[in-house]
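Reopening this one. Same input as before:
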Amino acid sequence: MKFSNYWPDYLREHSKPATRAMHYIQTVFGGAAILGSIATQDWLFLVAILVVIFIWALAAHKLVEGNRPAAATHPFWWSVVNDLRMLAHFATGTLGRELEKAGVTQAK
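Same output, byte for byte:
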C-alpha cells in the first residue's frame, strides 16, 4: 500500500469518536511536549514522552476501538502524519466529510 492510499484505512481504524478524541489529546499535548523537550534539549524527557504517547495510542486502540494501532502494521510516520491530518480536519470542521468518504458511519 502506498501512503497516498492510506488515509481511508487510517480513518476506518479510528472510527469511534472517543478514539479520535484520545488521538487529538495525544497529538496536541504530545507535540507540545516534544517541542519543549527539543527546545530545552532534555533528551530523557523526549524519550519518556514518546513512550507515553505510544502507550496512550495503544490504550485508545485496545480499550476503545478494539483494534491494533496502525503504526503496528505500517510505517510509524504514516500514523504521525495522519494524526496531524485528522486533527486539522477536526479543527476545520471537515472531518465528517472525510469519514463519510472513507465509509465510516457516525453516531447521530
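So the earlier flakiness isn't reproducible anymore. For the record, The longest helix spans residues 17-40.
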